[in-house]
Amino acid sequence: MASATTAIRGPVLTYTGDAFLEGLERTMRYESDAIVAMKDGKVTHFGAANAVRDALPPDTTVRHLGKDTLTMAGFIDCHVHYAQTQIIGAYGEQLIDWLDEYTFSAEQQFADKAHARDVARVFLKECLRAGTTTAAVFCTVHPQSVDAFFEESAALGTRMIAGKVMMDRNAPGALTDTPKKGYDETKALIGTWHGKGRHLYCVTPRFAPTSSPEQMEMAGAVWNEHPGTYLQSHVAENRGEVAWARALYPERKGYLDIYDHFGQLGKRAIYGHGIWLTEDELRRCHDTGTAIAHCPTSNFFLGSGCFNLRNAKKAGRPVRIGLGTDLGAGTSFSMLQTLNEAYKAAQLNGNPLSSGHAFYLATRGSAHSLYLEDTIGSIAPGMEADLVVLDLKSTPIIEYRMGYCNDLDDALFIQMTLGDDRAVLATYVAGQLAYTRPARHDA
Ligand code: GUN
Ligand code: ZN
Predict the structure, then answer these.
(1) What ligand 1 atom has the least distance to the C-alpha of 298?
(2) CA distance 230 to 137
(3) Which residue(s) pair with 268 in the sheet?
(4) Ligand 1 pocket mutation, candidates 95, 211, 235, criterion most atoms within 8 A of CB
């Protein structure tokens, strides 16, 4: 049965193109009093309230959000590990020791589907509380960890991209598969989940050091045999990791070339981090359409380094860049907090990140990195109706600071610097209200 049209009314920000390449003036669209109407999971109308109001079906319910809110497309997290929800904020190690010490023991618990389901539920709830409506998600080596995740996501109607981790060496026996098992299980999961509802499958070799050449071959094969699926992994996150990958694959030109050799670069391939990629490697990402997920909270937390966003987007060979939390090495579900750290990473590279560019990155930019910019990440008729509504005065200090706010850029910058999950007033998934913040307590 077709649903009725519903709508929200209030200030709206969205993007119509690539803010980095085309500039903010051409791509950033702000309406101080807009209507977004939704039906059957999609946006049907968007524009200034005065212009849109008369075009709405007469029985449309309009929710008035007020001038101290800002509605955007739902945030998109391009790189995250749901199975690491239980180890966020684990002290003291850099990447490889952190994996051995905390991650691999947590991931072993996902052999138990009931545990996987419980964690998936917590994870997805936290995403919605943070205004994140789509994510590219690493599950664990266990196929049931993928089933549990997608089943929980289906209950919420979220558009999620996820896959079973493939590892056949340099990991505990309980977390390894074999080249053939990894291939067969991945193929079966693609059959079950890819394109089912809003779900998309992602072939997920964890990173080159935990896969043998035979497994890398099979991972590339299964991805290339299933057009439209995704591939995710990690590259050039930590200097020790880069040296290790190169030592394990001495015949390859560099770290990225390992993935290239095994047919794992191209459209819908997305790699976490990329901090230490060389100029040639960035060019290769550009040439192949491979995307990088910038994960600043994780990069600072693990002491991995400082991704140079401006250099990655350099004119002439811009790389598709999305934003990722990379939980549990990342320290927050909040994309606002992730932008806060992205700003600091940019500062350390000598190129501060404007708030307009930052919110592009969290929405349409991330969609673009996933080749989904025609489906999610912006607000326009025909786009899927995933929305986040921010409360621009969500805490006493933000409310106070907003009293001295000069313009939209300033308001956005205040949100990404001081805001977190408390700023998320509501989250809509496919046109349905999926999360409402409880009443504010100022104490
Ligand atoms: N590299 C390989 N596996 C992981 C992981 O789980 N987290 C991070 N941050 N990097 C990785
Ligand atoms: Zn990761």
Answers:
(1) 9
(2) 11
(3) none
(4) 95
Residue 440: pLDDT over 80: no
Distance between CA atoms of 306 and 295, rounded to whole angstroms?
A: 10
Q: For residue 271, which ligand has an atom nearest its CA? A: 2
The pLDDT tens digits of the residues spanning 167-216 come to 999 999 999 999 999 999 999 999 999 999 999 999 999 999 999 999 99
Domains and their CATH numbers in the chain: 6-73+378-436 (2.30.40.10), 75-369 (3.20.20.140)
**Atom of ligand 1 minimally distant from the CA of 210:** 2
* d(C-alpha 18, C-alpha 147), whole Å: 35
- The residues facing 63 across adjacent strands are 8
Cα dist from 286 to 311, 356, 365, whole Å: 12, 23, 15
- Nearest alpha carbon, ligand 1 atom 9: 329
Q: Which residues line ligand 1 (CB under 6 A)?
A: 81, 95, 99, 103, 206-207, 234, 237, 298, 326, 329
C-alpha 378/C-alpha 376 separation (Å) is 6
DSSP one-letter string for 277-298: --HHHHHHHHHHT-EEEE-HHH
Q: Give residue for tokens 């599950």.
A: 139
Tokens of 16: 């119509």
Average pLDDT over residues 270-293: 98
Backbone φ and ψ of 252, nearest 5°? -90, 155
The atom number, within ligand 1, closest to the CA of 302 reads 9
